[in-house]
Design goal:
Number of strands: 0
Strand content: under 5%
Radius of gyration: 26 Å
Shape: globular
Number of helices: 18
Helix content: over 70%
Structural class: mainly alpha
Largest sheet: none
Distance between the termini: 49 Å
Length: about 375
């Protein structure tokens, strides 16, 4: 009788689970400034892992191969962050120089609109649309972005320690999960999926960014390399990353040269990214991603809300991790099934592979 009095009903269990989930999400959102760089460093470490293994296969000593892989990864990431940071510093210093061009563009637009049958004189009459105010907004925004990029050197330090730990981690994992071959297999499948997604998106994002940069250099748009780096980073943001990466170079081309070259930038970016993202890349990403289109969009919204801009960049790897986590438990396997684009989870594939083996090993009496 006493045991029944304190038993949890299904409704109570559901409410308790929901409350626990809300508490965990609130904690993650509060810790986003620290949690975001940690997760990014972890994803980069997983993606960079095969580098040391490749050196070992080439005959390098394991210690030398591991140290070389760590140094190359950390130095490469540090140089990347330093390049972006220095470019932003230069952009922040030169933004006020664009104010005269912005004023001339505003006058041109006002003259052209005066021919239309409505009063266009009030269009730029507000203080918020004055060229000096617009330049001020841009300077403050770039200053904030520069400060955020400067904090990414913390990410480089995290990567160094994670890569050092990653050398011994596979053996630790095998020892810890020696009694559970399924756990080791799930972790290996998760690592391979993350690695494939990051590598494939990096390759095609780099291709699109290089072509975009060449286009901007040919048109004479300032800071073409910075906008190319932005294009590469936002290639990891599904659906809207391309549009966000297009805005700064298009606006700068408009201020520098006018509507014609700005239109060329928009058209060129659109064609380049459409071909890469919608024609070429899906042939390689489709099987490795195994997430439905709806899940991709919801992942972008959810992780972006939870972790901020960094969450939007790593939304897909985090969703892949969540999917593999759901597959590890019978109670949540249906969620992994809903997230899958193929409709079959990895756990089901493992089970289906195990059945023929079990059948072949059994002998009739």
């Amino acid at each position: 009788m006493t045991e029944n009095r304190y038993a949890i009903t299904p409704l109570g269990r559901m409410l308790l689970t929901a409350a626990s989930g809300v508490a965990v999400l609130a904690g993650m959102r509060a810790a986003a400034p620290i949690l975001g760089p940690v997760v990014v460093a972890l994803i980069i470490t997983i993606a960079w892992g095969p580098g040391s293994a490749w050196l070992r296969r080439k005959g390098w000593h394991p210690s030398v191969a591991a140290l070389t892989g760590i140094l190359l990864g950390v130095i490469g990431m540090a140089l990347f962050v330093a390049l972006v940071w220095s470019s932003l510093i230069q952009l922040q210093a030169n933004l006020p120089n664009y104010q005269p061009r912005l004023e001339a563009l505003q006058q041109t637009i006002t003259v052209q609109l005066s021919a239309l049958p409505f009063d266009s004189s009030r269009l730029f009459s507000g203080d918020m649309l004055r060229p000096s105010a617009l330049v001020g907004y841009a300077v403050r925004f770039v200053r904030q972005v520069t400060s955020a990029v400067g904090n990414l050197f913390f990410l480089v330090l995290l990567m160094a320690f994670m890569m050092l730990e990653a050398v011994r981690y596979p053996q630790k994992l095998r020892d810890a999960l020696a009694s559970s071959s399924t756990g080791v297999e799930q972790f290996n499948r998760f690592s391979v999926s993350i690695r494939e997604y990051v590598v494939i998106n990096s390759i095609f994002g780099l291709i699109a960014a290089a072509i975009n940069t060449a286009l901007l250099l040919a048109l004479g748009v300032d800071y073409a390399i910075l906008w190319g780096v932005l294009s590469f980073l936002l290639s990891f943001v599904p659906n809207i990353g391309f549009a966000i990466a297009l805005v700064p170079p298009a606006l700068l081309a408009l201020v520098q040269f006018g509507f014609v070259r700005a239109g060329i930038v928009v058209a060129g970016y659109t064609v380049i990214n459409f071909v890469v993202d919608n024609v070429v890349k899906p042939r390689f990403v489709g099987e490795s991603l195994d997430l439905s289109a709806l899940v991709v969009v919801l992942s972008l919204l959810f992780w972006g809300w939870l972790l901020g801009p960094i969450g939007a960049l790593i939304a897909i790897p985090l969703s892949i991790a969540a999917k593999f986590l759901f597959e590890g438990f019978e109670e949540s396997r249906w969620l992994a099934h809903l997230m899958s684009d193929q409709g079959v989870t990895a756990a089901q594939l493992v089970a289906s592979d195990a059945e023929p083996i079990a059948a072949s090993g059994s002998k009739p009496d």
